[in-house]
What does this fold into?
Amino acid sequence: MKKKIKIAVVGIGLMGSQHLKAVNLSKKAKLHSIVDLNKKSEVHAKKFKVPFYSSSKHLLKNNKPDAVIVATPNQFHEKHTISFLNAKIPVLLEKPISDNIKKAEKIIKSSKKNKTHLLIGYHRRHNSIVTSVKQKIDSGKFGKIVAGNVMCWLYKNKDWYKEKWRIKKGGGPLGINLVHDIDLICYLLGPVQSVQSATSNLIRKYEVEDTAVVNFIFKSGALCTLSVSDTIVGPWSYELTAGENPAYPVTNQSAYYIGGTKGSIQFPNLKHWYNKGERSWWKPMYHKDMNIRLSRFTLINQINHLCDVVKGKAKPKVTGEDGLQSLKIFDAIIKSSKSGKKISIK
Ligand SMILES: NC(=O)c1ccc[n+]([C@@H]2O[C@H](COP(=O)([O-])OP(=O)(O)OC[C@H]3O[C@@H](n4cnc5c(N)ncnc54)[C@H](O)[C@@H]3O)[C@@H](O)[C@H]2O)c1
It folds into this structure.
């Protein structure tokens, strides 16, 4: 039998508990141990019959894993991740890479200095639909990409806002939801040159935004609008269309619309739109439902990918640099929403 990669999970909250399930379901991985400063999380260690540690230090002093998943709150990402990288243990770090750019740069530096892999948990990239759309865009099937439209429209009920941090700055749909779309559209369309944005709290009137629109100019010259709201009852978001998380009922709709000089694509409900023969708005439009074998268990795919990276069979799909770039764009979106100005991404 092939050797399974032993993975420790650090921080067993909302996301860490999802990772525990994914590691358990992966054929390539085996749960090594659980780390959480909250004693309550020991129940998970008992359930999975693995050791429980109250800190990363205790784990490192004892039995070292082959890799770790860090799913602690963003402000602790730097401390935890660097301690594992210094011990030459590859890390899958939850998104965002950190809560500030300087800390993110330190994490990347540590990965380089220790020659130890760092992967960022933008798990949508491990969905086969996304891989296939990327290949088709890069192959020129849709011609030169001109524009994109990304929607993230959701309605969060009152219970969601019982957690006080979610009504303060940083706890809104830009940071919780749109960050995934930022990573994904950059993966698909390449680096962003500049950003302009506007936010509103028209409906909920909390300190944090409930709605935002963002315009990207890509280095390729393509333009894209992203809109996010958690006060709209509507079916158009990746969350409600991709079927990655059983917690969300799936609608048969799309959230991404990407257009080029030869055709357009919408997904996750995959359709390729085109003219037959002459391209013209006077000619009929046809669409082809694209036949792609789905593998929507992106968290398990992500764990399998981590195992392949540890074994030297793959390179990280989402690197620390990707995580830093998304963080810089997010930072620029917040700045632009305050000043109204267009902000360049360096
Ligand atoms: N990929 C996704 O779709 C997704 C979704 C939700 C959250 N996240 C990310 O996952 C991370 C965790 O978010 P969450 O919502 O699960 O948070 P959470 O508050 O539900 O859980 C955090 C856990 O970390 C533990 N913890 C806190 N400080 C610790 C420390 N110093 N050492 C060990 N354990 C510690 C807490 O006790 C808690 O169990 C964040 O980075 C968040 O952005 C990602």
About this structure: The chain has a mean pLDDT of 95. The CA atoms of residues 5 and 29 lie 5 Å apart. The domain at 5-124+299-315 is CATH 3.40.50.720 (Rossmann fold).
